[in-house]
Specification:
Blueprint lengths: L2 H32 L9 E2 L12 E2 L21 E5 L6 H11 L4 E5 L4 E6 L1 H21 L6 E6 L4 E6 L5 H21 L7 E7 L5 E7 L8 H9 L2
Helix pairs in contact: 3-4
Length: 236
């Protein structure tokens, strides 16, 4: 191939690449211009049947995300059961957004006066959620079977949690497991009609099997501190 032709091909290639880059930049700029500012998004968006099997028209998420029942434009609770979730171990906004995306229930919203999350669901969703809570508890307990520094047991229809723990155990790690067990035990009780749910938590020193804590949660707070082991040793 002649040198002149090679140069021509290179020039054409560079020209085409330049156009492609320019078009890409233009597209980005147009997208930025077309993107509405926060708070100026369309009030509602209808999701597909796969994303929203109930066909409910809902407000699009933005920084002014509505956590209340007003989020649902076509709210209709016919045939649904309502439950109040009082024990939430995360940010309420994060929790409600997660529930609305999950499909676990039909409605999830915050009562601003009570500062409590309400959920509404079908009988089928309730049964599925109960089964899911049981499975999560079983999975958590099974995952801890090889743990040598602490051991959990859950008893009596998820109203009792027993913990044997060694002083050298990592409290944060144990705490993560405890939150899972408490939360799913709470859901099991609530969905089975016990709105005033309560969990009897008993903590023993793993080495001596002496009791360090005996509380009714959430009425009483769970606080595990080093001085509890000191008291156990003192009373030996």
């Amino acid at each position: 191939m002649k040198k002149k032709n090679i140069v021509r091909i290179i020039i054409i290639a560079l020209f085409v690449i330049g156009i492609a880059v320019a078009l890409l930049q233009y597209k980005r700029e147009q997208t930025a211009l077309e993107q509405p500012d926060v708070g100026e998004e369309p009030e509602t968006v209808v999701l597909s049947a796969d994303e929203n099997p109930f066909g409910v028209e809902i407000k699009k998420i933005n920084e002014d995300y509505d956590l209340t029942k007003n989020y649902y434009k076509n709210y209709d609770d016919t045939g649904l059961e309502e439950f109040k979730i009082t024990g939430i171990f995360t940010d309420k906004k994060e929790y409600i957004v997660g529930l609305r995306k999950s499909g676990y229930c039909k409605y999830a919203w915050l009562d601003e006066e009570e500062q409590v999350v309400y959920i509404e669901m079908t009988q089928k969703q309730k049964e599925e959620w109960i089964d899911r809570a049981i499975d999560e508890i079983d999975k958590e307990l099974n995952s801890l079977e090889s743990e040598e520094l602490y051991k959990f047991t859950v008893e009596d229809d998820y109203t009792v949690i027993k913990l044997d723990i060694d002083q050298s155990a990592l409290i944060d790690e144990m705490g993560e497991a405890l939150i899972v067990l408490i939360y799913d035990s709470e859901l099991y009780q609530i969905f089975n009609g016990n709105e005033n749910w309560s969990i009897h938590i008993m903590v023993n020193d793993m080495e001596t099997q002496k009791e360090m804590m005996n509380i009714q949660f959430p009425k009483e707070k769970f606080r595990l501190s080093p001085d509890m082991w000191e008291k156990v040793k003192t009373n030996e």
